[in-house]
Amino acid sequence: MRIAIDAMGGDHAPGELVRGACMAAAEGIDLVLVGESGRLGEELAALPKRPPGIEVVHASQVVTMEDHPLAVRQKRDSSIRICARLLKEERVQAVVTAGNTGAAMVAAKTVVGTIEGVDRPALAAVFPNHRGKTVVLDIGANVSARPSHLRQFAVMGHVYAQLVNQTDRPRVGLMSVGVEEGKGGEMLRRAFRVLEGTGLNFVGNVEGGDVYSGEADVIVCDGFVGNVLLKSNEALAGYLAALLRRELGSRWLGRLGALIARPAFAAYKRRTDWSEYGAVPLLGVRGGFFIAHGRSRAHAIQSAVRRAAEFCDADLHRRLREKVAELHSREEELLAPLGEDGADSPWDGASRPV
Amino acid sequence: MRIAIDAMGGDHAPGELVRGACMAAAEGIDLVLVGESGRLGEELAALPKRPPGIEVVHASQVVTMEDHPLAVRQKRDSSIRICARLLKEERVQAVVTAGNTGAAMVAAKTVVGTIEGVDRPALAAVFPNHRGKTVVLDIGANVSARPSHLRQFAVMGHVYAQLVNQTDRPRVGLMSVGVEEGKGGEMLRRAFRVLEGTGLNFVGNVEGGDVYSGEADVIVCDGFVGNVLLKSNEALAGYLAALLRRELGSRWLGRLGALIARPAFAAYKRRTDWSEYGAVPLLGVRGGFFIAHGRSRAHAIQSAVRRAAEFCDADLHRRLREKVAELHSREEELLAPLGEDGADSPWDGASRPV
Lengths: 354, 354
Description:
Two copies of one chain form a homodimer. By secondary structure, chain A is α/β, with parallel strands linked by helices.
């Protein structure tokens, strides 16, 4: 198993990327660092010890965070594009990038391509809760999703929950709102009917709070809703932590209590440290494609590589392909009567799923 | 100033509703309790002291939490419908309900009506952050919103931030995602252009995390996105608190530290206690209309009545009407060239804003 790292992408590239990669390589994972070979050589030389199993592949260009995602089409020798090409040519089994997410998505879709039966790849994030873990997808690969896309997300989430979260018969929920006549409009009702017909363990509509209730193991939504959900939750966790630190720090009894309860706070922090997850997979691509946070430092990159390795170990890509193919045969039968994907559908690409 | 309370709505009606109302009445706010007069009389009689300024108006029916929102049309003698009628007839200046939200919305729209220039009322929630407070709307009154609706939300949010949060020149942001080509599709780009032309202090696109960054004082989005945001954030705050309690409680040093730092934890809890807000206003209705959490107990109802009173004190309703009218004159000029509200627009009522 080999994993390619876009060593030039992210706020702390290439230094932290190279360090994170070496930490993962020391655990026995074979890696390909893609980027400007001179810079990468310097970074590697500066390390106390270069672990075995690290190869460098040169890329003369970089898609920066400020670049338009489509810049990846022009920058044919960019690190992210070369990563995608290595995956396409099966020289690696997965790619990890902390660079321009939009560009990564374009590279994944256009260079690597999607598996049969998946029109749009989806980013899947795992949320911990009292009853286990809930996978939410899409959290940002697509701003809109038609019922057929939500169905594909559901299938991919189902396989992910089974293989990665070890959930036996994942309960799949459709993100909705509870405060509206008819609960969400025509598109959501269509999506509901499509999901009912998948043969998955569909538990119906869920709400935003169910990400933490554990009422569903998989929740599907369009990437706009999922992205707002993920980013607001991340920010809230940070805000609450800062608020608690401030309240504890502003009183000497608070500081003393915090000192005494330090192991408990450390355990709490480990449980809520989002960088432990490292990266979210872009499901539906022909191979592993992992998007790490742009702010990732070495530890987060190491976690990201570990997740990519888990993905490969679990043979998630093959299982996804098989399960999608299995359900794909029912698709026309299911969707044709709804006219859901018809060219004259009033729900064009710009419209939303619900 | 008089405020009507739907005493039959919510999980703890009428007992907690009556108690909360009495707590608010003791602060000098005149109230009308609407509901089954026999039950309400018993609840009032059971209290140690009935404060002055509480009137009871009889309603023989109740729209339950399980009822379809449109049940409010049939149940003409329901407590929420009578509340709406009192507001319509200007016998009260505001309504507070913890009952069926959908039904409350239908009652507000059909019985009370919207102010001129507002097609759809919006629920506005206030999120605290390091730099102050951010108003997000809509958080659930409508599942979809066209650019013209988002413009109306922006105007209402602007007035709300000025009058309630005392923000001088509120910065208005458009909820978006940062990971997509073209950042959100055609509808979002249209909304962007419409917001640019409002004369408000429009700061452009923001992301989910900006609810807590304080980069904007007002954030507009459709009610689907806003509702998922609100509910997931509420659930996350609860989940993190439970997690911290568990980690502290599972070690004796943790329990000791928590005991010593108790005042700090209490201060933290007060700052993050969402029931202090009590209720969210449904902006754009001809009068104050406040939606409290279905789980509200007496304290939350008291807070809700206080907020309703603040709303009336600040003359928010008149200011909203004036500001909307001021911007309304520009609307046709702004929107006509975009064909935004045309009958043959591809974005019908079922589609989404972005």
